[in-house]
Every structure is written in C-alpha cells, then in structure tokens.
Amino acid sequence: MHSRIIGYASSARTAHVDGLTAGHHYRVFMDTWNAAGEGKPRIAGTVTPN
Length: 50
What we know:
By secondary structure, this protein is mainly β. It is built from no helices and 4 strands.
C-alpha cells in the first residue's frame, strides 16, 4: 500500500499517518519537491504503531 502525505512545511520533523494497524511494520519513505522537480526517495524510518 502506498499513501501520500502532503502539506508539511520543509522544517517539519514529524508527520501523522492515519490508518496504520497496530503490530504491523511499516517502512516510511520521504520525497521532496522544489522548482527543479522531484528528489529521490529516501528511507525516513521504520515504524510499528502500538
């Protein structure tokens, strides 16, 4: 499953993701965009909701 979370400021250090299932592991990737276009995706971290 892929989801997009948009609208966070470039200075944001956290984001809220709805719809995750407790006990499942998720890998979070981050992309950035600017006037030159889209950057390469980077692994921002792995999360496991409680």
